Amino acid sequence: MGDAPLSTVRNAARLLKAFRGREAELGVSELARRLGLGKSAVHRLLTTLAAEGLIEQDRQTGGYRLGIVMFELGEAVKVHLDLHAVAGSVLQQLREQTSESAQVGVLDGLEVVYVDRLESPHALRLFTETGRRVPAHTASSGKVLLANLADDELDALLDGVELSAPTQHTIADPTLLREHLAAIRSRGWAESVNEREIGVASVAAPIRDLRGQVVAAISIGGPLTRLGTNARRRFVREVVEAGEAVSRRLGWAPETAMRKEG
Questions:
Q1: What is the largest CA-CA distance in the chain?
Q2: What CATH number corresponds to the domain at position 8?
Q3: What pLDDT tens digit does each residue of the chain (262 aa) get?
Q4: Domain housing 45
Q5: Angle 254-261/229-249 helices, nearest 10 degrees?
Q6: Strand 190-193 and strand 55-57: pairing?
Q7: Domain end residue (candidates: 44, 66, 88)
Q8: Which of 63, 78, 96, 243 could be cross-linked to 25 through a Cys-Cys bond (beta carbons 3.0 to 4.6 Å apart)?
Q9: Cβ distance 142 to 112 under 8 Å?
């Protein structure tokens, strides 16, 4: 009995995979034949997937095709694959310019996940492995990503949530955090000082996709003894330029964006 939910999920996955061919649409009978399932079972799966936007039905033909959510998921995967492909050399250059650990992070809810990272050459450095998750409001990368969300998206994440405060310097009050994020969005970069861990600082800038949407953040981080106020201000330019370099490789053209805004 416990295997039934897993079987349903597996069949739903198999159904979605059936649309990898060149057919514009597939009907219930054809899907049932390909999957070796009864028509009623396939219809139930289609109804559930359609409710989630993963499948949609053509009202005129009655056939089914992949929904807009599948396209959005595919675009998200493409961005992440592209990030891995284009960010490597930029990260390396940023590490060489600053001699600090350099990383790329993406937002997942209220957490930032580091998807690429190069360690500092210094003996004293941060140890944040690729794939690690940290509260977004405590990290410069996370704050850049939160700052560039639409207001309704940010509200949905923050409303009714009690933010963690790992140190006394963490901005855990939602109202103060919103004000802080507005300033970050306006200036185009963020920093975190003693907010995730005492004695640690970081600086981050946004990475944009073809449409100008912020999809990731690039940052450097290290001990506060090396990343004091003067050092952070000195490195802001390098971090922002690194973010722009990755963005351009993803197809973003800041000149075009400025013309559209004008």
A1: 68
A2: 1.10.10.10
A3: 445 566 889 899 999 988 877 677 899 999 999 999 999 999 999 999 999 888 999 888 889 998 887 776 766 666 665 677 778 889 999 999 999 999 999 998 999 988 888 887 765 555 555 557 899 999 999 999 999 999 999 999 999 899 999 999 999 999 999 999 999 999 999 999 999 999 999 999 999 988 899 999 999 999 999 999 999 999 999 999 999 999 998 888 876 554 444 4
A4: 4-66
A5: 90
A6: unpaired
A7: 66
A8: 63
A9: yes
Q: Which residues contact 196 (CB under 8 A, 6 or more apart)?
A: 134, 135, 138, 139, 166, 167, 170
User: Quick check: helix, strand or coil at residue 42?
Assistant: helix
Tokens of 238: 């390098």
Number of domains in the chain: 2
Tokens (6 digits) for 206: 């946004």
Of 214, 213, 231, 211, residue with least CA distance to 223: 231
40 and 134 assigned to the same domain: no
